[in-house]
Structure formats: C-alpha cells, structure tokens
UniProtKB/TrEMBL annotation:
Residues 258-419 form the NADH:ubiquinone oxidoreductase intermediate-associated protein domain. It comes from Aquilegia coerulea. This is NADH:ubiquinone oxidoreductase intermediate-associated protein 30 domain-containing protein. Residues 421-531 form the NAD(P)-binding domain. Residues 114-187 form the NmrA-like domain. SUPFAM superfamilies: Galactose-binding domain-like, NAD(P)-binding Rossmann-fold domains.
Length: 554
C-alpha cells in the first residue's frame, strides 16, 4: 500500500517530527526495490507525496480505491506502548532491514539447566544425596552454613550457596536462579547430652543409643521458621502444581494485565480492535476478558491484536512448560506471541491455535512450540526462547501466518474472543519438585492412648526436646500448603549401615525400626522422577521395601 503523506501538511499535527527527519536521505534509503517496510505481519510502503489531507480529521486519505488511514490512532498506539514518540528512532527502526533467512534449518530450542538444590548438604543424609546426584550426572547446588566444611567434604568445585534457612536475609534470590528441584535434608541438630567424639560417632549410631538434647537452634526456628524461609526462596523457581495465573478471574483470585490495541493501523491499515472486561461474560456468569474488533484487508492490511505493555518486572516462568488459555472460540485461528525483549520492534516467539465455535476451551501452548518470528518470517539463529525473562504477551487475529503462509480460517469483518484466564502450566505427568526429609512419629505425641514406653526416643521426649516432632509436623504442613509439587519422606532411626541392609519395621501408623542414611538419600533422588510420589508422605522403612520391589519410585 501507499501512505501518501505531505510532510508540509503534517507539520502542525506531528510535534517533534521535523521535515528534515522525514526527508533525511539515510532514512528514506531502503534496501528494498519496491520501497516497502515490513512491520509485524505485512508491509508498509515508504512515505510519498499525498493526494490530499482532510483538514478536520487525522485520517490520511490515500489514492482512489483505498480507505482513509487514521493517523491519530497510529500515534496513540505508538504512545501507549512506547511513551512520547521519538521520530528519528522510530523511522530508523522501521526502515532498518532485519537480516533473516527462510531456509529449512531447524529452529534452536531452549535448553534448561534444571539445577537440583540440596539443603543440609553436609549432614548425614544430605551429603549422600549430593553423591547420588553426582553419580547420575545431574547438576547440583548446595546450601550450607559452613563454606570451609562444605568444600572439605564435597570438594572445592562444588556449586555452593552459603546461607542459613533460619536467617531469611541470607537467602538472596539471585542465589537460587536455575534451581528447579529441591531435596531438603536440613534438620534440627540432636546430640548426646554427655558429648560426642569429633567425628560424631555416637550420633551416627542413632538416637536410640544416647540421651539426646537439642544442639544449636531450636526446632521451631529450624523446622518451622526455616522451612517457611526456604519455601519462599525457592517457590518461584520450582513452580506451583496448579500453575501461575497471569491474567483472568478464578474464584476469589483476579489478575489483570495492561492490554492495548496493536492493529494494522501501524502499517496503514484500517482494522481496529479493543480489549474489554465483560462483567458477566464468563462461563460461570462472572467477569472475563474480551478481545473484539473488526478486521479488514483494505490498504493491504489484515490483522488486529492486543498486546500488553512491557511488564515492570519480567515474568520468570522457567518452572513451567507453557501457557494455558481458557477461551470461548469462534472457529478462527489466532496467534499467541511472547516477547523476551523490551524493544518495540523485535522477535516475537509465536504459535497459532485453533478455536471451536461457541465452545469454551482450554488450550495449552507449550513453550517448545514457540517459533521466533520477525515481520512474518522465521528468524533462524535467533536467541533461544527464555521463559525466565518474559516481557510481554500478545494475542492476534491475522490474515497472515508466517513465511508466506495464510490463515485458512481468516474472514474479514467483526470477531470476538472471550479470554477468561491465561496461566502458566506444568505438563503431565507432574513429578515432585520438593522432597523433604522429615521424621517418623511426627503425628504421635498428641495421639491419645499411645504407650510412650514402646515409642522411639523422639516421641517419648518430644516435650523435653523442645517439641521437635510438633514443629517437624508444622514444617510438613507448610510444604503441603505451598502449592509446590512435593514428596515427604519420614525415616525412622538413621544408621550408617550401607543401603540394602535388612529392614526392621512394623507396619501401619506405629512404624518403628531403623534405616541407613544412604538408603534414604537414594529414595529422595528417586522420588524426583516418580509421578507416583507426587504429593505423598511416605514412612520408611516401609516405603523402602516397596521401593526395592520396584512398585514405586522408579
């Protein structure tokens, strides 16, 4: 299309746009032989002398057979997303050619590190967990209080966070970047009243063999406050089982985004859309978002879209596998565009989705399906999609797809797409992201009719040990209530025997006995890969017997 504009007549309306800016030789020089500038899904021809300009409107009327272009709406669009326009920067960005290829080479996929954090990594169970993970070739990061001790025990090259879960200020968010799973082996320290050898020989034999007392921080501080701090530190990285709501209305929850129209007016078209909140439009009669408008191919246009302003803080969705939309379809194909750069005119990671007419649908769009698109062409060699740095979202209804393809469901005229929610999701089957080592017997201290003389020391001495099991149970409840996919492992008396030793236990709620720390470590690692272990609490050694029989945790 041709945008036939007189720079002289535009002067009164374009404050900041100088005649020299519009006619600068470098800006009007184009590598394209037909002097067109691609933007988003179609083309915008370079400025030429107009036939005429209507005096009382901001519409620029093109040559015969073409419709008027609403230049005022064009400026409003730029202003909404970019603030006051900078003419030189904007036109230079339009005219600059973005090098890309339409070859058939595959698009690069995003890689993820999926670091496993081990807390309490210098303890009896924790250091064995680190060893098992390393032998599997999995990336490990440890959280320890004593750097020197950790390096001596785990090696000088260990990926380490020096911090204390009882001190929230030491759990700096940057330390946990890349952490996708956690095995928590932190526990309050219990030792012999009479003291121990330098290598803690008495402690290693198990609590049954000495008169115990709390050493160091209290159970409340470690098992409850510490757990609360740890969950807060890792929650964003490991994610929530039910996903993260980015936009929409869900029960008592609501999240809104700063949507604005971004239509083909930016390249001379006349299509127009808006985003509204329909207070009774959802499938339950509550509020829902509504993307609606009229699309036209006049002036070589053919798309409408809504785009969010750049988020003030980029969304980190690296814990999730994609975006899930709840929409009421109209039989048309739409696009979702995700951007990881704050720049106005940049690569958009794009995928299409089809809708069913007059039906509410849940549509899942994996991050792996996103294709780097710039000006309707695939950008091979583009940076891989980074789900930890999402800057904006865009929904589009367009005549165009990419690389010359057209939308087979496109029809000109009015359309609407109710959107009740947009959320990040975890794909099925979901496996535990947080494995917590607790203790058998946590529910027993307050159990009526219990013969304490037959119970392990921790149950008998719960009060004397500052309510150790009571606060361990409170810590478990924090894990369950966090929304993080979890497994809780409750071992009995821990020993230094190798994994595979004979199991001594009683079945049911009164389980007692002993188990090796090495066996506990192996089960914790196995739980991370088992959908069966999701949101379960296992008592050991009962779970160990089943584990060995390969019924679960494989």
């Amino acid at each position: 299309m041709e945008c036939l504009c007189s720079t002289t007549n535009l002067q009164p309306q374009l404050k900041g746009f100088s005649k020299n800016t519009l006619h600068h030789h470098k800006l009007l020089s184009s590598p394209y032989s037909t002097q067109f500038i691609q933007l988003n899904d179609t083309t915008f021809t370079s400025l030429r002398k107009p036939t005429y300009l209507r005096a009382k409107t901001s519409s620029i009327v093109a040559e015969s057979g073409k419709q008027g272009w609403d230049f005022g709406r064009f400026l409003k669009t730029l202003y909404y997303f970019n603030g006051p326009p900078s003419p030189a920067k904007f036109f230079a960005s339009l005219i600059g050619k973005f090098s890309n290829s339409t070859s058939s080479e595959p698009v690069k996929n995003m890689g993820t590190s999926d670091i496993i954090l081990v807390t309490g990594a210098t303890g009896g169970v924790g250091r064995r967990v680190v060893d098992v993970l390393r032998k599997k070739g999995l990336p490990v990061r440890v959280l320890v209080r004593n750097e020197e001790k950790a390096k001596k025990m785990l090696g000088p090259d260990v990926d380490m966070i020096v911090g204390d879960i009882t001190k929230e200020s030491t759990l700096v968010p940057e330390y946990f970047k890349g952490v996708k799973k956690v095995i928590n082996a932190v526990s309050v320290i219990v030792g012999p009243k009479e003291g121990d050898t330098p290598d803690r020989a008495k402690y290693s034999q198990g609590i049954k063999f000495f008169e115990p007392e709390i050493k160091g921080d209290s159970p409340e501080k470690v098992e409850y406050i510490g757990m609360k701090n740890l969950i807060s530190a890792v929650k964003k990285g490991v994610g929530l089982q039910n996903g993260k709501l980015l936009f929409g209305y869900e029960g008592d929850l609501s999240t809104e985004l700063p949507w604005g129209a971004l239509d083909d007016v930016v390249m001379g078209g006349v299509s127009e859309s808006s985003f509204q909140i329909d207070q009774t439009g959802s499938e339950t009669g509550g509020p829902t978002g509504l993307f609606k408008g009229v699309v036209s191919t006049a002036n070589n246009g053919g798309f409408t879209s809504i785009r969010t302003k750049n988020f003030s803080v980029p969304e980190d969705l690296s814990a999730y596998d994609g975006l899930e939309l709840r929409v009421k379809g109209n039989g048309r194909r739409y696009k979702l565009i995700v951007r990881i750069s704050p720049e106005w005119d940049t690569v958009g990671y794009t995928t299409g989705f089809d809708t069913v007419k007059d039906e509410w649908q849940t549509i899942r769009l994996p991050f792996s399906s996103l294709r780097p698109i710039f000006r309707a062409k695939t950008v091979f060699g583009a940076p891989p999609f980074d789900a930890s740095n999402i800057v904006s979202l865009q929904l589009m209804f367009s005549k165009f797809e990419y690389d010359g393809k057209l939308n087979p469901t496109f029809v000109e005229g009015p359309f609407q797409l109710p959107v009740s929610t947009i959320r990040a999701y975890m794909k099925e089957p979901i496996t535990p992201r947080f494995v917590h080592v607790s203790s058998a017997g946590v529910t027993r201290p307050d159990r009526p009719g219990l013969d304490l003389s037959k119970q392990p020391p921790a149950v008998r001495l719960n009060k004397e040990l500052d309510f150790i099991l009571t606060f361990k149970l409170k810590g478990e409840d924090l894990v369950r209530e966090s929304g993080i996919p979890y497994t809780i492992v409750r071992p009995c008396a821990l020993t230094e025997e190798p994994a595979g030793a004979d199991l001594i236990f009683e079945q049911g709620d009164n389980i007692t006995g002993k188990i090796s720390r090495e066996e506990v470590a192996r089960i914790c690692v196995a739980a991370l890969e088992s959908p069966y272990a999701l949101d379960k609490t296992f008592e050991q050694p009962k779970v160990t017997l089943i584990y060995r029989q390969h019924l679960i945790l494989v």
